[in-house]
Design a protein that fits this description.
The protein has about 240 residues and is mainly α. It has twelve helices and two strands. The chain has a two-stranded antiparallel ribbon with strand order 1-2. Helix 2 runs antiparallel to helix 4, helix 2 packs across helix 12 and helix 6 packs antiparallel against helix 7. The radius of gyration is 22 Å and the shape is globular.
Length: about 240
């Protein structure tokens, strides 16, 4: 079993060795995730259209959506669809490219352009499909109450990292390997994320500046260390070659 303190120390050392690039990549990953999270907000906001009553001759009145309200609703619907498409066709590959960067950053000093590796891998469609299925499975399990969704999110935590090194791997195999890697480790991974809570509170207190320049790359680098440990364990256990 991995040691949380040791992995965090390794992650911290790794991102400090290539500080500028690590900060930039983590910032791009965080920014695109924040923008994509506006998808649900846009969907909900589309429901908040004006309810206006008009009175005209002979007592005739119309209640409900006005023309303005319909246009506002259409705007938010179109925005939600656009954000979903951006998530599927852009965010997924950037997420995998970011994972590739932090994996390589353990042993070398990759450039920021490695975040585009998912687009250049020759397996763009497979990455999109696998990441989409990952989010879909997590969302469906979340519908069964929150806890199953959290469990599944940790079960599939390794998917972006596996795709980063094996972009052409079949979806079923990716999910199977991630499940094997996280078997018995989901609670530890949850506790690992909780251990960053203090840093994230400090990041909020600094209007996100501490997050950009320290906390976010620290977390991403530590997650990459979890993958490196799990990959080595997988080789030793024989369920990957």
């Amino acid at each position: 079993m991995w040691d949380r303190v040791l992995l965090k120390a390794r992650g911290k050392d790794a991102f400090r060795r290539n500080y500028g690039s690590a900060v930039a990549v983590a910032f791009i990953m965080g920014l695109i995730s924040m923008v994509m999270s506006g998808n649900s907000s846009a969907s909900n906001a589309g429901k908040l259209t004006p309810n206006i009553t008009y009175h005209v001759e002979e007592g005739y009145h119309m209640s409900g959506f006005s023309m303005f309200g319909a246009l506002v609703g259409m705007f938010f619907v179109v925005s939600a669809i656009a954000l979903m498409l951006l998530k599927v066709f852009i965010e997924y590959n950037l997420r995998v490219g970011g994972a590739k960067f932090f994996i390589q950053n353990q042993i070398s000093r990759p450039g920021v352009d490695m975040i585009l590796d998912g687009f250049r891998s020759g397996h763009y469609g497979n990455i999109v499909l696998t990441m989409f299925l990952r989010d879909l499975y997590i969302a469906l399990w979340t519908l069964l109450f929150i806890v199953p969704g959290i469990v599944k999110s940790y079960e599939y935590m390794m998917v972006p990292y596996i795709l980063a090194e094996n972009p052409g791997m079949d979806q079923k195999e990716v999910f199977q390997i991630s499940r094997e890697m996280m078997n018995g480790q989901k609670l530890n991974a949850f506790v690992l994320d909780l251990s960053f809570l203090g840093w994230e509170i400090l990041s909020v207190c600094t209007c996100g500046l501490l997050g950009i320049f320290y906390v976010n790359p620290y977390i991403e680098a530590t997650h990459a260390e979890v993958y490196a440990f799990n990959k080595q364990k997988a080789f030793e256990s024989g369920y990957i070659r």
